[in-house]
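> @MW can you paste both from yesterday?
MW: sure, first one:
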Amino acid sequence: MRQSILVAVLLLLTCSLGFATVPWTPEDAARARAAATGAERPAIPPARFYSGDNLADYALAAQFVASMQVSDSLSPDYGGIREGEHLLDIIQTDNTSESIWIFSRYYELTGDPSLLDELAASWEYVLSHPAYNEEGGDDIVAGYYRIYNCGWALRAQMKYLEVFDDSTYASYVGS
């Protein structure tokens, strides 16, 4: 009996390896980057180990988020942040609210104004796509995503207010 269980477990483990996701190599990432569709391609940062410089790594992360932003000012999704490198057509308010926090924190840490245009574009997107209007129902179970989005909207506005001492967007959170 014990031997049968051991054989079954080994068989299951062997089979599961066939369905496991294989880690990407740099060549795989390059192929994915080349295959990205659309006029804009995200600036996928190179795979590397932690550099030891927190600020430099944060700057790279902030620049990556900026590269995921819809930059076509004629698009109804202008300023929104794409869901992922392989989901370029999905733009959501939660990612965009997160970008407001990220860009504000970047400015707070560095004083570098290079991402302020992206920050303004993110605000433009969330003002036209309010967090409380994201998909989901009105009850707490079906509407969890709206609640999650509203939480990010609150965090974004709080960080923006803290960094810039500017209450321009306070009404967004209060709506």
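MW: second:
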Amino acid sequence: MIAAFFDIDGTIYRNALLIEHFKKMIKYELFKDVQYRLKVEEAYQLWDTRKGDYDDYLLDLAQLYVVAIKGLSLKYNDFISDQVLLLKGNRVYTYTREMIEWHKKQGHKVFFISGSPSFLVSRMAKKMGVDDFCGSVYEIDEETQTFSGRITKPMWDSAHKQEAIDDFIKKYDIDLSKSYAYGDTNGDYSMLSSVGNPRAINPSKELIKKIKDDENLEERRYIDIYIEQKNDSSIIKIYSRIYNIKNENYSSADTRILNNVILTKNNGEKIYIQKDNIKYEKQDAIFKVNEYLKGPITLVLGEVMINNKKYKTSKIYLQKLKGTYMIFGFDIKWVDN
């Protein structure tokens, strides 16, 4: 069985489900906003700008969150959790949402493994129609039907996510060599390193460094890295496959997003990409597109110059926007001169 493992926070969801739940608790005056600001806001800002480690931020937040949730009744929590998914549940990345649907159509099993509370992960799993899930488990006082203030099963670190994968393997007879994983931080590393098709989504610098420094991955020729703009849905999104990551000088501040991309149709065989009136390839490529085709289209052709580096393009993905075909993404690899 082929599986697809997805982290949620920062990979599918544009923020963190736990944060949205936390904000609702503050809104309903179950917890004072000043405590959040004093203790974890700085760590959050560092993570949100990709300057800090999400694992460090989540540890700080979890310590505060477990205090905040202590004594909260299950009925009240169900109401708050439902509100989070109802009001904020659609704030997801286009790419991972589409990949979830693609995996379903291929007959793959789709799993969510997330550090957010299981009671939120279960709701997101149901909303997106996936096969199974695993989230952090917060202990319940059965006598009072409230949260006890203890975490019995944290799921934000790599080791615990590996345990979840192992459980899914036994339960569903999964072939990891043909399976997929999607994640954005160090906590997702075990997922990415254990499958045949790893894809890092908006990865943190810490995750990139961990991949590059892992000697056990010396035989792994590439890992896929996909970048999607967070705030401006009008900007064309470029999802770039970076090959031979150990030889790439990649940093999260220097992503391969190409904004304001113009694609010119011509009768040549090479492609030409223009960004902010700068041409990255001599003349003029491109392709002829059959107008009757719907959805993303895959074409095989060409080379592209980006920042004075030549790349060979193995695939170009197009999407029709307002009657015009624009770049949706492309796969690239370094071509030695």
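> thanks! The two ends are 41 Å apart (CA to CA).
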